Amino acid sequence: MSDITIYPARKIITMNPARPEVSHVAVRDGRILGAGTLEELEGWGAYELDARFADKVLMPGMVEGHAHTMEGTLWGNVYVGYFDRMDPDGTVWPGLTSIDAVLARLTEAEAALSDPDAPLSAWQFDPIYMDNQRVNRAQLDAVSATRPIGVLHASVHIMNVNTRALELAGLMRQGIEHPGIPLGEDGYPTGELKGPEVMGQVGAHVGYAQALTDCDEPGLHAFAKLCVRQGVTTVTDLAAGLSPESVEMMLRVTGEARFPARVVPLRYFMGLSPADLVAEVVRLRDMSTDRLRMGRIKVVADGSIQGFSARMRWPGYYNGAPNGMWYIAPEQMEEIYERALEAGVQIHTHTNGDQATELALEKMEAALARHPRRDHRFTLQHCQLADAAQFRKIAALGMCVNLFANHHFYWGDAHFNLTVGPERAERMNACRTALASGVPMAMHSDAPITPLAPLFTAWCAVNRLTASGRVQGEAERISVSEALYAVTLGAAYTLHLDGEIGSIETGKRADFAVLEEDPTTVDAMALKDVSVWGTVQGGRVFAAGDL
Amino acid sequence: MSAALPVTVIGGYLGAGKTTLVNHLLRHAEGRRLAVLVNEFGELPIDTDLIEAEGEELISISGGCVCCSFGSDLTAALLRLAALEPRPDHVVIEASGVAIPGAILSSVSLLAGYRADGVVILADAVGLRGSLDDPYVGDTVRAQVAGADIIVLNKMDLVSEAARGGLVDWVAGGWPGAALLPVTGGAAPVDLVLGVGGTRGGGSAVGHADGLFESIVLEVSAEVDAAALAEAIATGSYGVVRAKGWVGGQLLHVVGQRWAVTPGRGAMGLVCIGVKGKLQRDGLAALVG
Q1: How far is A90 from chain B (nearest CA, A)?
Q2: Are residues B217 and B145 in the same domain?
Q3: Which residues contact A205 (CB under 8 A, 6 or more apart)?
Q4: Residues B174 and B235 in one domain
Q5: Which residue from B128, B215, B122 is spatially nearest to B166, judged by alpha carbons?
Q6: pLDDT in the model for residue A321
Q7: Residues on chain A touching B74 (C-beta within 8 angstroms)
């Protein structure tokens, strides 16, 4: 039997400008031997022709440059989101558009639990689409008064709990004075808990014991299934704790013969001094395998725009909300940048507001002056409100961006009406300006915040439709081919992996997304509806239907 | 059930002297078993001569004190601390330079078994004005100081003699709700920062070697209501930074303008501490009579 497999396909989109579309790809040892005509590929010697993709379209396996594997863990809970969403097993859960529908799904899930003390945990509740109606503990008590219930909001910063959960956490009392715990007329908490500190005290009682930054073992398996269903072959885990236990688990799971994705966890910056952080990440880098790539750092500069915790430049929030909060002191940011540049460690920095972006650019410029390093590819993640001058500066400093294109669909209307106002809402996630400024660009889902699905992300950037159906920021739209580049080679570039993945050409990993339709010829409005058959990862075939 | 564990949050912007103050407290704990929680173990947060043993998660410090890092999960760290044997007497949280300590303390106060003792903000006597004007962190520093029960105005030695009075008046006028302690080298008296409670002084505050602070001990009449007394001291102008006492079966704590009264029995009496020359002895005596 030959060790070369040649796959004919209806079309193979290569992302290699020298031969953008071919009919055949040859694979050996998990890598691409060549992409071209059958005749060209036959020159490599004896082969086996595998025609299973003869009527499919292949493109480079997609690279999700900003996601969190904890989405896999969250699917162990009840989905109560507003939008339809596919779970790791391929079931599409219809979106719930009213509080009553949410309570009905909770009641149904409650009835299915056999252990009377087990918590009922739900996620992705988003009352912003329901006129911001609040849920109180009495409504959840009607679902169950005896088992603790916790409903995590889509923002991941608010949770609703029932009376039982408050009792277990010692919070079912009067006289609490805390901005994160609204009280009812009776003086007892309403059951809404705001902010990680408050949620953390109840989390363990309602099934959210684990830090929300990390996945567990079943969660990692579940997340990998989502990757296959969405054509993703390399995925980041953008704020990983990377404790010794977590690293051991991730090495073991990703090392399983049929684990279908390459995982790139970035070590969350908190908990170590800059010097220790960089040293730890260098140590982790050397433990990496093909399917677990450690050795990068995630820094968070500010909060979120819709949570009004992002740091904004003048004139601030459209509704007059006070400026947001810093997650890191400017001096610490500069020190981490400097030490990382010195050690050759890459940093991705979360900046949402334009003041946070400004700070990152200022500190990067200062750090680079002291520790010049070519090709550092430090990346700004989200970078949602950067203006044209900031994109020019990003390019000049050799930095990359990974823009949050999906945000535009999910929260674009809120940004227009409430958070930043019409003008800045139209320039949010400015893909066109980024490309025109020469900034290497990826774009992302931030799963679980929005669903993992790079073709949907591409659709968002191409069409810039909000959930209400308005085109917002027409001038910032990009073409389908630019969008497909961003979710493959573009994202690979931000991880220094563009030499290995992101295109279909000789020498690269045999990572393909296998599609039923051709994303380059369907109507741009149908890009998100292109069905994914599955993936090929490192030469191994994964059919979504067989998961 | 044992009495609630008092928690003090020490905050302030980078370089104001938080770590220096923490080490000063450890050095002068006077028998208190302090548990210090720091955001991160870095270039060591604790002076090396104080360290007895270093583990992955816990540093043992002379005098029965410990230090742990909490990273991004303070709640978990506090729950671990509560299980320590022997139990600490006082928890000191050193907040990160951009954290809002008032918010941290109000979250801590939700945890059963803990008592929010107070927020102590370190301010750099030379750098405070500049950091308040900083375009990035000015509003953060303002929010930190606004939440202070005690402002420790540190590095006073770097301020010229002529400028000291004006600086102290400006801070005192700007944040009238906080007690102000101008110090050098982070050397704020432990009884003021953490409250009266060391064993070496015999259980009550006596003698402040540097002569900048003074204390008075008052007898309290049995008719006095503990809560009313605490509120009067906290909100009145008696120059009190700290007060502690047992009044009619209640334990009373005052820190700046924050006060708390919890059930507790001890020898009836009240200790008040303040900046030397500012304590209003007569006014206080009238309150307890």
Answers
A1: 34
A2: no
A3: A119, A148, A150, A165, A168, A169
A4: no
A5: B128
A6: 95
A7: 197, 200
